[in-house]
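Q: What structure does this chain adopt?
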Amino acid sequence: MTDLNSMNCYILTGGKSSRMGTDKASLDFKGKTFAEQISNAIKPYSNSIYNISSRNEHSDSINLIKDIHLDIGPMGGIHSALSHTDKEWNLITSCDLPLLQPKSIYWLLENTEYKHDATILDINNKRNPLFGIYHKSCIRTIESLIAQNAYRMMHLIDNINTKIIKAPDYIADTLININTPEEYQKILA
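A:
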């Protein structure tokens, strides 16, 4: 297992949040924003935590890295992260995982084989590229895909050596994406 202290950790907070209708990273959950909840889950393992965003209004307690490419989705955020990093391996997560727990991060680290370009999870038979470990070298493929206007994350996953691991239920339950007002209300209940 590589320790997160030897990695940079990036929370992608620059999305449009179109289905939610408001900025997901700033939504409150148990007295903290989604971004702060995720940062707190990472902190037991690393203090090298950054927000990737085109906006400035996110938590002052988390370092902000500005998006290089605007309006191309998470591919642009990962490109910004890997352009910034000075580490070989990097944890990348979306900002819409407020249920994320340290045990989920530990489990991902324990199950990552560092011979792949990336390790992501299969959650309920669906690949989730926005909670994973990415090698800095993925930037070459990302830049090629951006040049082709191929911004879908599955283009990246299909064009790098990706290990996809099935998340057990106790991990999958902490990786529920909150994308709509209905999903948000459900976790508040």
